[in-house]
Amino acid sequence: MTTPVESDPSTWDQALDAVVAAPKHHRVLFENERLRVLEVTLEPNDEEPVHHHRWPSVFVLDQVKGPIHDFAPDGTQLPPNRDVIQAIQAWDGKGSLVVHMAPQPPGRVLNACDMTVHGIRVEMKNG
Asked: Taking CA 36 as the corner, what is the angle to CA 82 and CA 14, rounded to the nearest 5 degrees?
């Protein structure tokens, strides 16, 4: 299998799509041929199953704080360099946090804080 980072996101395994692989954490609110709007929820000390987001998106978080950790599918903790992790670290905690997201290859997220993470993710299918 080709490493997703090195491949076209449209070829990524459909079984690892966020809605399919992590339905407890991703709920479709709206979908058409151009957009998919997800409600994303991650309870305190909960970890998502391995999944990906194949399309670029705008993620509007109305409830979030760190620490939040990213893990590769093999369990290796990733450095805090992904767009959402950097945005959370730089955020002043006021209002909603809006993050422009690149496609995300397979991985999983651990909410290591005492607050539920909640947001709306608007995925642009036409990139």
From this structure: 75
